[in-house]
Amino acid sequence: MTMSNSPCTDDGLTLRFWGVRGSTPVSGPDYAEFGGSTPCMEVRCGQRLFLIDAGSGLYHCGQHHRTGLPKAIDLLFSHLHLDHTGGLPFFKPAVLDPEQVINTWCGNLDGQSAEAALGTLYAPPLFPVTLDILPCTLRHHGFKAGQTLTFGDGAQVDTILLNHPQGSVGYRFDHAGKRLCIISDIEHTDPWPDEELMRFVEGADLMVYDGMFTDCEYPTCRGWGHSTWQKGVELARAAGVKALAIIHLHPGHTDTVLRAMEADMQAEMPTAFIARERSSVAVGAQAARRPVTLARIA
Ligand SMILES: [Zn+2]
Ligand SMILES: [Zn+2]
């Protein structure tokens, strides 16, 4: 596993974290290393782009790529809670481009698309305008978590329903012999690891996992829909997952806290790391024992 700030390579499976904070954005000197934007990730299967979630990190994705994004984008929602949808209208310049098509994919509402929910969120008095005034074309697709998504160009992505209030969708990307699983938001179950989830992530080169809490913090946050890095390590070990990235970082976990947490985690699983906003990963390229410290790219 390598982490760098170089552009994604032409082939292979790559992942860039545009937002890794859970629940609410944070900012300030205590969050300089891991970042404060809420979930958004960019997955490239070769040059084929997928965006996962539209948290406030989506703004940075738009600002970084400017006009360099494909004219049709597939945006896969894990679910529609505010920390995963709040960046959508700020995905500029894409949403201001009349030639841009954004396909949203929502799988946690029993087949319903995100259209009605986003229409409720983005309307006065909660938001000054509705999304239909944006120059881009938004097409909303609904599916049932558990289905394999097949896109127009033949690309396929597997999905699984996760344990979270109103449900959430985990995604699995297989490309060029590498496997990436994104498993957030999720609360672990008892017993753990869950058999179906274990099969879903089996043999992944990288699993991205919801580590909002530590095992120590978890008892007072039971039922809130989130997990711990320790449960991520347990799942990774049981399923033969080669590397683990923790996201959905707690807003109260400062850089100092997260660095200590990462050291604890790497004592258990040397290829595990806590995701840093704006960093990118070449999935399965090399098993690093610890992440490379990153400089900001923009
Ligand atoms: Zn969330
Ligand atoms: Zn949620």
UniProtKB/TrEMBL annotation:
It comes from the Bacteria. SMART domains: Lactamase_B (SM00849). Residues 37-212 form the Metallo-beta-lactamase domain. InterPro entries: Metallo-B-lactamas, RibonucZ/Hydroxyglut_hydro. PANTHER family: ZINC PHOSPHODIESTERASE ELAC PROTEIN 1. This is Ribonuclease BN. The lineage of its organism: Bacteria, Pseudomonadati, Pseudomonadota, Alphaproteobacteria, Hyphomicrobiales.
